[in-house]
């Protein structure tokens, strides 16, 4: 039986953005609410536009309990076409992947999204013609290859009034002045220069218009191999050591070309490596880090753990959670990437050595490592505007192929790899280990990851600056409106109103250096599901002792090698690395200085907010970080109101922006997954421990049964 609420005759129309067109729709569609494993749900209309798939509930009227953190572009029942991962049809209780032309139409539709949401729609009560139109429409517009110009990005840019200034203190790095400013900021202008050699893309379409190279590099050298083999500057350390990247020569090539290229590279190295004054370390990332294919495979396995169909599936996987998590290899890849970034930081900080990152295109793992090193070493990159400028510099202008790596056009699965998501996962590890060091929150990172799939911003929808430039002029679309003015994702007012934007800012950000050892410890909350892989080694006592620092240092030294072997015996850290790592961790943290992530064993965790936010079973009512955030915001509001009273007494007018702190109504009722999910009806957890369920599997297959619930609670009590 299913609980059926009779559909009303009230007409519900979708809210369309400028340039958005309604393509097909179906009425009397039943959307399941899978939170408690039952077949409860609501009727409504399912529509497909050239921007999104949307379910319109009959009760779509604004609600008093509407979340304060609401996206103005994408609603909770909206899925942008780029956010659709896979679509399954259910035929006689069997799931089948839907692609291309369909001969038979399903009775149920399951849509898995790239932001880990899962939608279940029942089409039994929908007219046959409407089912055909909506299913084939959704599959066609979200799964089949398309041309770049067909992206909604262009429809929106030509129709929307562009009255926003998207810069928001973010340095865009599309002018020579931006590069010169960055050189000056990092004191790199003594040894490095910004060049205009690639104006008009004369050298290469893959390189940005402007970039920075060592002073000694000539224009002829840059032209010789279309920019390959040229060290390109990323960032300079306070001691003068610089981080550089280089696009390597392809490995498959003529034997005759190889000696010439080797001689060219030797000449380049000699000009920038002048011992003992200027040392250079080359780091070939394609040899020392996992391949893009490995990263894609690991993430594909990893995300399957969170695309949960129903409550029964969740508790069934809970039995073997650790082994499933470890077998994906995703946390191990994060650990390896962070470790490599620490190694590079050691060369720059302690050895005063220039580091040259090498990769075939220098636009994938080079972007990850160079960004991480800057986040760890430069406190400016830990501010919101600094981090956004970093993404612009290393990724957007640096030429990371967002279009191919995110597979926005569904052209080739072979090119797809979650490289940018890997960076955000690594940055999240640092954010959760050292919250006061960052001006932004984990919510900011989660929203940024979601914005990868919102095609009204140009930021993540081109492969290079050249590709964006040639597609920006209106002539390319045969319209007379002149060049497009694409929006940038950094203008957060497009997606969120000011009250919602407050959740992106960290109220506990340490404005000034506070080397206070006690602040390094962050409160740990017990989650229903452990989020990191456990270690069997003994952990040192958390009690304070007279010789605490000394004993901690000894224990770390003794256990260091054992832990390394446990994680990956073939990847034993060199002694200098371990010494640098342990030495830093034995001292109090300077939140505005160098930050090194803790990378041993269970220190690498699952980004709970991003991956568990749509799963009611993982919610902690009134718990999690929201419990502390709510208290902090409450205190901040009290401080602000007192400030206003003081200002009024001194007749100095109103203080600042009194509305900048949102009050979290009924914060005790919010769940740990706030602000993405409000407190929902809790799913029924099996009354027996999961280990007992596993033992019973053979007898009665209780874990897989979802048609009835065996309640043993009364007897146990």
UniProtKB/TrEMBL annotation:
What Gene3D superfamilies does this protein's entry cite?
Pleckstrin-homology domain (PH domain)/Phosphotyrosine-binding domain (PTB)
One BP term from GO: phosphatidylinositol dephosphorylation
Q: Which residues form the Myotubularin phosphatase domain?
A: 173-611
Query: Where is it found, in Gene Ontology cellular component terms?
Result: membrane; sarcomere; sarcoplasmic reticulum
Record-linked InterPro entries: MTMR12-like_C, MTMR12_PTP, Myotubularin, Myotubularin-like_Pase_dom, PH-like_dom_sf, Prot-tyrosine_phosphatase-like
Keyword annotations? Cytoplasm, Sarcoplasmic reticulum
Primary residence: cytoplasm
Q: Subcellular location, in the record's words?
A: Cytoplasm, Myofibril, Sarcomere; Sarcoplasmic reticulum
Q: Which PANTHER family match?
A: MYOTUBULARIN-RELATED (PTHR10807), MYOTUBULARIN-RELATED PROTEIN 12 (PTHR10807:SF37)
| Family per record | Belongs to the protein-tyrosine phosphatase family. Non-receptor class myotubularin subfamily.
Protein name as annotated: Myotubularin-related protein 12
Look up and give the organism this protein is from: Indicator maculatus (spotted honeyguide)
Species classification: Eukaryota, Metazoa, Chordata, Craniata, Vertebrata
